Prior knowledge:
Blueprint: E1 3-8, E2 14-19, E3 25-28, H1 35-47, E4 53-58, E5 64-70, E6 73-78, H2 84-97, E7 102-105
Parallel strand pairs: 1-7
Antiparallel strand pairs: 1-2, 2-3, 3-6, 4-5, 5-6
Amino acid sequence: MGAFVMSKRFNGEYKFAFTSRKGKTIFSSPGYELRFECEEAIEKLKSNLVDASYSRHKAAAGKYFFKLTIDEELTVTSRKYSTELRLQKGIDEVNQSAASAEILDFTQNDIVFG
């Protein structure tokens, strides 16, 4: 089962990433100014996943990635994959476990391991 991991960027914006059950990041979000906006984006994605559309792309370096949109609005961008098969496995992981994934909040602690 995957998980949504909320954290803060160095510029103070909030973001989330969806990670696989093995801990690999599948996609990450754009930045959000407020924490509740980030939480709302996760909930919107989880509840509207059946209506989501995936567009597949190939980067200039030859790697593959996807963009997930809901209601014609770009929601997230995936990490780069070395093959189209791995890209499809990433999409399958999102479809299988994102709707029921838990949310892990690491926005409060800047230093997790002292």
